[in-house]
Amino acid sequence: MASSSACRAPTRRPRTMIPVAANDVAFSLHAVALTAFTLFQVFIYERGNQKISKVCISITAIVWTAAIVCLIVAWPKSNWLWLIDVFNSIQVGMTAIKYIPQAVMNFKRKSTIGWSIGNILLDLTGGVLNFGQMGVQSIDQHTLVNFYGNIGKTLLSLEVVFFDVLFIIQHYVLYPAKRDENVDGYPGLPVEVKHVAAA
User: What's the pTM value of the predicted model, to 2 decimals?
Assistant: First the structure.
């Protein structure tokens, strides 16, 4: 399976460009750097009673173990395309694990109070622009290899856009914040937040 996957690119798409642009690499490096910095903040700042859940620790351990095992399997025969496919699958799965709990929590609370929509709007903008880039490249190269040649990127973009749209609907349509500018002396804040701030 691994060897056939490794040969897939040259046999299916002879003389076509590898659908990975410089900005893809730059985005990955920037994402790793910012995530590492955020993780660093988790350890140095006061967290109160908040702890990383055992479920989160277990999932992270399983994913890292699987990634290391796949790297060991791929290394002897240089099956890097297969390894990339595996990593892409892991990334798609981890993204779902990241977003689903928030969507479920918003649904159960019937509210998005205390949660920022700003990152979602930026995320959606990036996802739409990403599809735009892939579309322009496909037109320029007269091929759809940018979509099916890097299926992990395509699936991840679709997944992110789907959840972003879901969160936007939850925030602005299903559970909009009720505002009362005269409550507790906190003008412009949602009622629930004012009560917490005044406590």
Answer: 0.74
